[in-house]
């Protein structure tokens, strides 16, 4: 199908965040191993990143691996980590050539040292790029992020670097993983599930939500454009009266 354009009187989202869901169910429906679903999901991520660039998105955040995903079978986690390593080794140069800055948010302590080194290399290589900011949420949980921010704030108060009276929403924002990014305007979830699953809980307070009845491996630029088109037709009131 042809992408749905955003009309001149619609406001396009600056920051789009996506919960990439349904790799395993996509594979199961086809009688394939789950790892094939994850591989096809990586291909969908590549398509979507390119589509976001072409659609003029400034910030794209992809939920790649949650803190809860560590409870999956060891073999599946190993497959996912291998895919992540492959992506960081093979795709970063392409991101760099396309002017995309890559950053990773989440608990890096649970990732292997080899993967952490690849992440640090990718972030350093692409740090000056400004065409689009691509953020991967890995070993990430929204509640854990807020708890981490609270601990850091408490430590700064205890050590005299911060007065408790200064703590407000704006200050808390500066202690989050996304401190140097705008909050998402649009959050998309694939696979037909209608929940946000501990993803960017603080940041998504006023985001528009779009749920797509399609497994992630089948997602692409046209689906992204359709979600943006739906976003453009909504009225964002931020709690104010119409």
UniProtKB/TrEMBL annotation:
One of its GO terms (cellular component) is cytosol. Binds 2 magnesium ions per subunit. The active site is at 21, 69 (proton acceptor). Mg(2+) binds at residues 21, 208. Keywords: Magnesium, Metal-binding, Transferase. It is an enzyme of class 2 (transferase). This is Isoprenyl transferase. Belongs to the UPP synthase family. InterPro entries: UPP_synth-like, UPP_synth-like_CS, UPP_synth-like_sf. PROSITE patterns: UPP_SYNTHASE. The keyword Protease does not apply. Catalyzes the condensation of isopentenyl diphosphate (IPP) with allylic pyrophosphates generating different type of terpenoids. Homodimer. It holds the Pfam family Prenyltransf. Its EC number is 2.5.1.-. PANTHER family: DEHYDRODOLICHYL DIPHOSPHATE SYNTHASE 2 (PTHR10291:SF0), DEHYDRODOLICHYL DIPHOSPHATE SYNTHASE FAMILY MEMBER (PTHR10291). Substrate binds at residues 22-26, 34, 38, 66-68, 70, 72, 189, 195-197. It comes from Hypericibacter adhaerens. GO terms for biological process: polyprenol biosynthetic process. One of its GO terms (molecular function) is ditrans,polycis-undecaprenyl-diphosphate synthase [(2E,6E)-farnesyl-diphosphate specific] activity. Its cofactor is Mg(2+).
